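Input chain follows. Return structure tokens only.
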Amino acid sequence: MKKLLPALLLGSACFAAGAFVARPAAPDEITVPMLRAAQQLMGLSFPDAQLDSTRRNLTGYRDSYEALRKIPLPNSVAPSVVFDPRPLRLRQSQLTAAKNDAGKLPQTPKVKLPANRDELAFYTVRQLGELLRTKQLSSEELTLFSLARLKKYDPKLHCVISLTEELALKQARQADQEIRAGKYRGPLHGIPFGVKDLFTAKGYKTTWGSVPYKDQTLDEDAAVVERLREAGAVLVAKLTLGELAQGDVWFGEKTRTLWDVSKGSSGSSAGSASAVAAGLVPFAIGTETLGSIVSPSTACGVTGLRPTYGRVSRAGAMALSWTMDKAGPLTRSAEDCAIVLAALTAAGPDPRDPATLQAPTTFRYAFDTNLKKLRVGYLKAAFDQNYPTKANDQASLDALRKLGVELVPIELPPIAPGTLRFVLTAEGAAAFDDLTRSGKDAQMVLQNRFAWPNTFRSSRFIPAVEYIQAQRVRSLLIEQMDEKLKGLDLYIAPSFSANLTLTNLTGHPAIALPNGFTAAGLPSTITFMGQLYEEGKLLALAKAYQDATEFDEKHPNL
């Protein structure tokens, strides 16, 4: 111990001529020698250069610990993680076999096949479904059309990891046979789609967008792939994601938005948003842990639904954060989101994903909702701030008032959600423990301070007690949010504010809706938020807003 103390008192690292040099430590400073000693307790051996990057993250974590310790936590407050002692066998046996019925969709006007087939690229799922149902167009024709566009525009957008052409044509021909035989499965029957390449699909690679996994094959179908197949949809592509579900940079390139191909699509559901915006697929499936549907939906100008946590099964999906990951659709309209969500939830809870067993109700359409009877909140303080898309958001609020919606000012709970973000990074570090300890994280494309390799290393130093305490504070946040939303059906928020982190922690559903453009000509969105498991009302108001505006019908000039 006597030999260790001088090392702990040395300062943080400097690197001269490739060697570690210590400087005097400031009071309370986290230093490389401290971390070098600490990692010995955990059997780790990160080099000094990596520890130097790590220590700056740990300073931020310590600030979060200190903020959370000021929040009273009576012994009665349990963590927001529920232990389920039932093995998979019992979870399966206790489920009912009955399928959920989402109800009826609104009537749609008659749809005619356009003289210019290229216009099909920006038809909604509902419109394309009508063309297929009335046999004006075959699924094979539509699938070939989608495949051709994917091949044509991917060199510009870098949004595709794997085309599933052989499978797609097989599924399309089967759909055509069934439709001709009168066995119509519903509005997704014969519709092409893509999935974010963190979902498995038999016979195809599942790369997670990352160099260490770029040749990985997992021989199973993810739940979302299974359920969309049951609805008759046609899988045409596995689409890009930022490495391990962060950003828009993957092992092949950077995914772009067709609104400005010099800019990224954002992420991490990068390819899903980019492909839908460019009219390469009618819809795609993405995931969100902390903005990965909302952010690319904004950058690409599409409609993205983040359902309630646990609403959609994540079986067969890469895990980043077991208590925060959610799967949802990116589409051209709120109505399309509802159609896809109905298919994703039709089979009910999935025992392979225990989070789905918590849903107290099934998803149902609510498009007949009387908007004037809805009680809708809005985050007045957030909208009063100065930010680049404020004018677009104010116009959206005005459009809702013209629809007869009464907007009630509300506030978010006082707990700062940013102090709980290390819950995500701790779970991510556990999910990719082997990657970090093996040193294979050095193969990843991004290696800056905020990239996963350094974040995962930093998170190895998060104490278990602090993680559990954060989950207990999260329980308080959930209760406070429930109190704030009491008496409301839903509320409106800017897409990028504290609300985004907060509601990813509380699990509330959100839909990002195009609502204009920035001064640079890039899309903007506003976010509608629902009560837990109340996607029906959320989508009803979103559809009404889109029926009254035209932003969801805008698309890039190709």
